[in-house]
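@channel anyone free to eyeball this complex?
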Amino acid sequence: MAEPCSVLTRPLIEGGKNLAQVTGDVCAPMERRPGALWWVAFLTAFGMLAAGVAAVTYQIATGIGVWGLNNTVGWAFDITNFVFWIGIGHAGTLISAILFLLRQRWRTSVNRAAEAMTLFAVICAGIFPVIHMGRPWLAYWIFPYPNFRGPLWINFRSPLAWDAFAISTYFIISATFWYVGLIPDLATVRDRARPGLRRKIFEFFSLGWDGSCRTWHRYEKVYLLLAGLATPLVVSVHTIVSWDFATSVIPGWHATIFPPYFVAGAIFSGMAMVLTLMIVARKAAHLEDYITVRHIETMAKLVIATSGMVALAYGTEFFTAQYSGNLYERFVFLNRAAGPFAWAYWIMVGCNVGVPQLLWFRRVRTHLAAVFVISLLVNVGMWFERFVIIVTSLHRDFLPANWTSYRPTSIEIATLVGSFGLFFTCFLVFCRVLPMIAMGEVKSVLSYGHKPKEEA
Amino acid sequence: MNRRVLVGIFTCEEDILGATRAARARGLRVVDVFAPYAVHGMDRAMGLRPSRLSLVCLLAGATGAVLKLWFEIWTAAVDWPVNVGGKPWNSLPAFVPITFEVMVLFAGLATVAAFLLKAGLRPGRKPRLVDPRITDDRFALVLEQADASFDVDSVRGLLSRFNATEVEERVEEGRR
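replying in thread with the prediction:
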């Protein structure tokens, strides 16, 4: 199709694809045998997962005394990982819901994979508080259910109870949103598949979708409503996570800036993770025409924008602490920047505020290797942000006699490695068994940027 | 009940939109239009009523919020009040976050459930595809031959004006 292109709107999808080519290109990675690269990645991820399973089994069997926690530092690695993973998930919902409401049509190429990333990240996140309970087999006690202890109900005033509801709702709604988005594409795969088990499976999950425009009409409504629900939901989830800290009276945690600070940070880190995954996936699955340099560049702009918000939050937090005149507040922040964990603080500032500034340059934004490295560094920085917030606020508390340090044990590190293993194992399997790009949505933006044909 | 229909297959969005509009302008009955993606403006071309799923969403959300708020107040202030840090039994502001989450949960799940019910989508349902390429790259317009005034030849002419690649008469067995 050599149609003339408009000067005002560049096409979102390159290569002048037609509808059948979209189906073919997106389904191709699912229909060929996985290559050596995929196997290497999968086995590595699976190995990491296995290490994590071993570590988790050991710490549950022995008790969480195997962690490096002590009386002063009661929260550290585990909660850091929890907040980190929840944050990663937020970019998926940003792309699928918020950018949908803002009519950012480029999102169609990345939303499926980003939503999958959200689900896997929330699964990873959910594991940590459950382990942290110490007796994970009683984890269901966090939910109110009729019981023979009175019934004794949970304390609905506790942010930890809010957290359990927020994370579960977030997972259920994200999964529903993702599945609803998948139905038309599952039908496409079904109609391509040869008769057999694979076709039967897709037939089951595509719910008998037949492409009727009456159904499409309702489908669009459902999609809009779910996007409208997911948008405040995603903001509420990280807000509630930040309340786990902000409702306490610990200097360094007790701050009203925490909810917006955490939400911006979550989207920042999530966007970086989407970039990390997409830069590799587009190459590996030969989807360069769909996830174009323009997509990468746009997401890089979101990274620099959220980096600015995070930087503002760091500055505000620091200034407010000094301005408050509160001895303990002042000390916590000076201790962060110059105390024993100053190295972690400056990794955080360097990776989250310093490095992303390179993205102001168009040449950096469109240089994939550079964006990839920056996105990795942002993730390192955002992990350290949570570590700094949690550990430095605790390790030197009100009484100098209680001051201590914290050092993670190998078990804690293995658990973190295991969560990465789980995440990448799930993502790699997803890339093989489901269409990585929302075909039904990409097809609707194919004509974007091309001159419409004269109407008859 | 069997009915005779005329099926036109198209390859591009503008054609199916134009053909649907023209067919309706002629007073023909559009049974349905099938497309591989949500065609912008098709709801108006087909004259579909706005969906009432928003109402379902609103009602379910309101139900969820009210039920949850009642449950929180009942458990914390009535059934077994427990003194937590001297806070009032009915700590309304602290009940807001969970109320919000449950509202979203109810609204989201009810909307999707209503959609699936209304659209007749369910696991194991055999898809009735007008053409196997509908989910790939073809569009189909299905017109009902309602009465004797339906002039097949002139309708064929109309559809081919919009570049229909195939036009076919079919007898459709009772739907659903």
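from a first look: Residues 3-49+127-172 of chain B form a domain with the Alpha-Beta Plaits fold (CATH 3.30.70.1110).
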